[in-house]
Design goal:
CATH topology of the largest domain: Rossmann fold
Shape: globular
CATH class of the largest domain: Alpha Beta
Number of strands: 11
InterPro entries: AAA+_ATPase (IPR003593), Ankyrin_rpt (IPR002110), Ankyrin_rpt-contain_sf (IPR036770), ATPase_AAA_core (IPR003959), Clp_ATPase_C (IPR019489), ClpA/B (IPR001270), ClpA_ClpB (IPR050130), P-loop_NTPase (IPR027417)
Domain Clp ATPase C-terminal: 396-486
Strand content: 5-15%
Radius of gyration: 29 Å
Helix content: 40-55%
Keywords: ANK repeat, ATP-binding, Nucleotide-binding
Number of helices: 22
Strand order of the largest sheet: 2-3-6-1-7
CATH architecture of the largest domain: 3-Layer(aba) Sandwich
GO molecular function: ATP binding; ATP hydrolysis activity
Structural class: alpha/beta
ANK repeats: 21-53, 90-122
């Protein structure tokens, strides 16, 4: 067997490839109690923490469209005949299988190779839960303790080197107040300074397209790395009717869909520590809010089958557009007041400009304006009382809008280079014109649409008419833009963005691309 494996390695076989029914070679080696084979696989890059995707023969047969009897026979012949065909093995690691077989040598080899003894399978069991001897149990308990100490030490070092605020700001433009509020709460949780009897609950308030969902997603990525498991997004507009509660937590026994489970309970069962995003929570039916209140208050949820899911370590984030108009209007008013106050300071540095644009929503505004709106929507004080932090997302400042435009233009510049081998350039006037297209009601999406409408549309039209080609350099220029070096403006003429192309053999000479002509600039010697 070892000889065959060595020959396969020479052909470039992927040691982490899966059998069509879900397991890998390392799972097979562990269940076969082949310690030497496990060591060879680990030495050649096998993942010691890979999880088996096989559940039981009936479920796999239904999922794969294969006759269950064929699934059961394949599992027995190609994996192991010592396992129950009805038991659920989804999420089992090679370490789970080594312990199930009572093989201490193979279990130790896996632990030495980096196996994580804290991983739980889909049944919520760690490898130690299957230990049959005191020596195996002792070895795994010690390994768990050591693994947690090393993991916590590394995590602490990583947090010091690269704080959460810094990570979030790499992906989210603006919203410094929101980022700091969330990061502070997560820091308290990570370091054990929080109420362990209750999960952490946030309510994100603000206009659409302003970073609420992205902040939730990046928080999940920071906490769990694996977004597929660690981030659960529930669209609450799907739960506006009373009968849709069953879709949320699962149907009770005897009802249609009982075996499928609920959209939330199913995902939380798989990963109880997830970051759960309840999008547009104000649209949910009151009965769904009642279930959420139990979830936030007790840190547990009972599904349609009567099974209780413990999720005190989860992080729940609700987003809402409630009071978004009031918040945006108040923030814009505050910015205008700050701008008027700082006129005499003649702020010239970007840091100074950004400092004048930082504003804080007052406690009085929150209590007098926002809270009554929330109480009318949710109709219960106890629901609001279980929210740890209400996080406010504010309209973008002028400097933040410039960053959003630049980020969007850089995206399209990369696309132009990658797909068409075309270089795209622009100046600050173009950025300013596009920033003027900001709509406070649609947030960053309005900037995205503005760039697509005023820039990408022109590029696509020029490409279709063969006015631009591979290898050319395109410059975006602004007409009738406000020139900071001149005192005379032409306010009656709207600012526009046009395309220019670099002349062949010239370094800095660009000519306009006329989208209303059929003449090809390449025929005129331009490049």
């Amino acid at each position: 067997m070892v000889h065959i494996f060595c020959r396969l390695l020479e052909t470039g076989v992927d040691v982490n490839s899966r059998h069509e029914l879900g397991w890998t070679a390392l799972h097979v080696a562990a269940i076969a109690q082949s310690t030497r084979m496990v060591e060879l696989l680990l030495q050649n890059g096998a993942d010691p923490n890979v999880e088996d995707e096989y559940s039981n023969y009936l479920t796999v047969g239904r999922e794969k469209g294969i006759h269950p009897l064929h699934v059961m026979m394949t599992r027995e012949e190609e994996f192991s005949s010592h396992l129950s065909p009805r038991a659920n093995f989804r999420g089992c690691t090679p370490l789970h299988y080594a312990v199930l077989m009572g093989d201490e040598r193979t279990a130790k080899a896996l632990l030495d190779g980096g196996a994580d003894p804290t991983i739980e399978n889909s049944n919520g069991h760690r490898a130690v839960d299957y230990a049959k001897t005191p020596s195996m149990q002792s070895m795994l308990e010690n390994a768990e303790k050591t693994y947690k100490e090393i993991r916590d030490k590394r995590a602490a070092e990583e947090r010091i080197k690269f704080p959460l605020e810094q990570r979030l700001k790499e992906h989210i433009i603006g919203q410094e107040g929101a980022i700091n509020t969330v990061a502070a709460a997560i820091r308290r949780k990570e370091n054990g300074w929080y109420d362990e009897d209750h999960p952490l609950v946030f309510l994100f308030l603000g206009s659409s397209g302003i970073g609420k969902t992205e902040l939730a997603k990046q928080t999940a990525k920071y906490l769990h790395k694996d977004l597929k498991k660690g981030f659960i997004r529930i669209d609450m507009s799907e739960y506006q009717e009373k009968h849709e509660v069953a879709k949320f937590i699962g149907s009770p026994p005897g009802y249609v869909g009982h075996e499928e489970g609920g959209q939330l309970t199913k995902r939380l069962t798989e990963f109880p520590k997830a970051v759960v995003l309840f999008d547009e929570v104000e649209k949910a039916h009151p009965d769904v809010l009642t279930i959420m209140l139990q979830l936030f208050d007790e840190g547990r949820l009972t599904d349609g089958k009567g099974k209780t899911i413990e999720c005190k370590d989860a992080v729940f984030i609700m987003t809402s557009n409630l009071a978004s108009e009031e918040i945006a209007g108040h923030a814009l008013q505050l910015r205008q007041e700050v701008k008027e106050y700082d006129k005499h300071k003649q702020a010239s540095k970007l840091e100074d400009l950004e400092a004048t644009e930082r504003i804080t929503i007052s406690r009085q505004f929150k209590d007098r304006v926002v809270r009554p709106i929330l109480k009318r929507a949710f109709k219960r004080d106890e629901f609001l009382g279980r929210i740890n932090e209400i996080v406010y997302f504010l309209p973008f400042s002028r400097s933040e809008l410039s960053k959003l435009v630049s980020k969007e233009l850089e995206f399209w510049a990369n696309q132009a280079d990658k797909k068409h081998n075309i270089k795209l350039q622009w100046d600050h006037n173009v950025v300013d014109i596009l920033a003027d297209g900001y709509d406070v009601h649609y947030g960053a999406r309005s900037i995205k649409y503005e760039v697509e409408r005023r820039v990408v549309t022109q590029l696509a039209m020029a490409h279709e008419r063969k006015l631009i080609d591979k290898g050319c350099v395109i410059k975006l220029t602004a007409s009738n833009a406000e020139d900071m070096t001149k005192t005379v403006n032409q306010p009656d003429k709207p600012a526009t963005i046009k395309l220019q192309i670099l002349q062949k053999g010239k370094k800095e000479e660009f000519v306009d691309i006329d989208l209303h002509t059929d003449k090809n600039p390449f025929d005129l010697g331009f490049k």
